Amino acid sequence: MKNHHKILKELFDYALAISLLMGLFLPIILLIVLATIDTKRFGLFEQKRVGYKGKLFKIHKIRTMKRSDNRSTITLYKDKRITKFGLFLRNYKLDELPQIFNILKGDMSFVGPRPDVQGYADKLEGEDRIVLDVKPGITGPAQLYFKNESKILSNQINPELYNKTIIWPKKVSINKAYIKNYTLLADFKYIYKTIFGLYE
């Protein structure tokens, strides 16, 4: 991605984040309060993710899972700790709203590769590391393409292997194409598709 594209993208991100926050600050606070009541834990949580240039940062999300000491209810891609309210938040991506603060902090963008936990993007080699040359996004082409990722993985005999050998390489390919062919218009398109549920 060219430097002037990065500057335009960053200016767009900050302008949109400030505009959205003026209208969404109170709803975000309300969702955090409701999530706190629902999960019986503080409704906002942080998790370390791999970001720009491989640097770790803390992503902010609204909590969607309750605590459970019963490990038999927990699997990698199908977690029974997710509450009904939490599932609602996830289905409509409302649990991602606090990431507007990540954008204002400079950790994220509205559109880009989804920030993963350690062991994926930070392990990329060669040309694939171009994925780390942009800030991770709340939405993006790979997220839209694999909108039903959890459902796909839950139907696999070995979901972890399927993710590593099928889904992850495809995500890298999609994100590389996004970065190499970047335009601000493309970002508008992905945001529009995310808002209106139009998927790849």
UniProtKB/TrEMBL annotation:
The chain crosses the membrane at residues 12-37. Pfam families: Bac_transf (PF02397). Keywords: Membrane, Transferase, Transmembrane, Transmembrane helix. One of its GO terms (molecular function) is phosphotransferase activity, for other substituted phosphate groups. It comes from the Bacteria. Residues 9-196 form the Bacterial sugar transferase domain. InterPro entries: Bact_transf. Belongs to the bacterial sugar transferase family. This is Sugar transferase. It comes from Aurantibacter aestuarii. The lineage of its organism: Bacteria, Pseudomonadati, Bacteroidota, Flavobacteriia, Flavobacteriales.
